[in-house]
Amino acid sequence: MSDDFELETLAVRAGIHRSQFNEHSEAMYLTSSFVFENAAQAAARFSGQEPGNIYARFTNPTVTVFQERLAALEGAEFCVATSSGMSAILSCVMGLLSAGDHIIASRSIFGTTVQLFGNILKRFGIETTFVSLTDVSAWQAAVQPNTKLLFVETPSNPLTEVCDIGALSSVAKQAGAWLAVDNCFCTPMLQRPLDLGADIVIHSATKYLDGQGRVLGGAVLGKKELMEGVYGFLRTAGPTLSAFNAWVILKGLETLKIRMDAHSQNALALAQWLEQHPQVDRVYYPGLASHPQHDLAMKQQKSGGGILSFDVKGGKDAAWRVVDHTRMLSITANLGDTKTTITHPATTTHSRVTAEARAASGIGDGLLRVAVGLEAIGDIQADLARGLNA
């Protein structure tokens, strides 16, 4: 579609390729393989001389629609869809890096990503240095001759720290490396990292892109030439997004703008309420003026987003009491759902991270993360108040 269309329109219309039946809704192609007209066409498809579908591990029309639509939303040349957010990160690294290469990553990233970078990739000769997300000088100091990738989440999980994407882009370019930004918390409706200087955007489509906690999915986006390495890994290793999941996420994309605006509105109101609660030590939310990177966030993002965290007075016992007193909020580690979710990061999402590393990242025992859903804000506040007032 034309670049003249607004994001809301692209989220509904981009990537549609109708079949001979002229269906209005995107078709779901549940097939493992595709038939060729003759041997010559099969050979041409496999050699890349003729475009077209071959095998659903790496070509499927429904997945292609999702890839083209998300690429349009992020302003990317190409998108590689994967089976989950973590498989997107793995595909990015394995498709672009080799043994002996070096990664610089924010220490404020998802706990499973820490495990992937710090433990699994290390076994294959790819070393990672973890630094402060917000300290540009620390990134500069960590650069080595073999540095190939800088990796960040912004806002971070779970403390919603925000990095200067443009500044880190400059560090990456000077090092001859790529900057990858996990845009899961914002989605392209609130933040477009490629426009700010990033080379790669990564998504867990499981979260806001689906938006209703139904299916798993992931994506890696960037320039087509760069994404060829990622696509090559996916074609061979097969961390593939299924046609069904792609179709479900496509339906989610149609309402992404409306949902992200509503999530952000609710989250800001909840953050402001929590800041005034006597049992709360601190609230972490980019939309608050008290947030350390509030001004930067408002330059890079259209709003504060739908995720916040807060420290409860009394440590782990008090935090667990808040969780256990909820009657409506879903106690789950997932986020980006229409339903509000709550989790205790130190014992769930970041439980496999060492206590020292959690402390260095500011993840204390009294910290709770809330992914604010679309319920009435008064009901969300009342549910949290039960535990906070206990």
UniProtKB/TrEMBL annotation:
Pathway: Amino-acid biosynthesis; L-methionine biosynthesis via de novo pathway; L-homocysteine from O-succinyl-L-homoserine: step 1/1. PROSITE patterns: CYS_MET_METAB_PP (PS00868). One of its GO terms (biological process) is homocysteine biosynthetic process. Signal peptide: none annotated. It catalyses: O-succinyl-L-homoserine + hydrogen sulfide = L-homocysteine + succinate. HAMAP family: MetZ. Belongs to the trans-sulfuration enzymes family. MetZ subfamily. This is O-succinylhomoserine sulfhydrylase. It comes from Sulfurirhabdus autotrophica. The lineage of its organism: Bacteria, Pseudomonadati, Pseudomonadota, Betaproteobacteria, Nitrosomonadales. The gene is metZ.
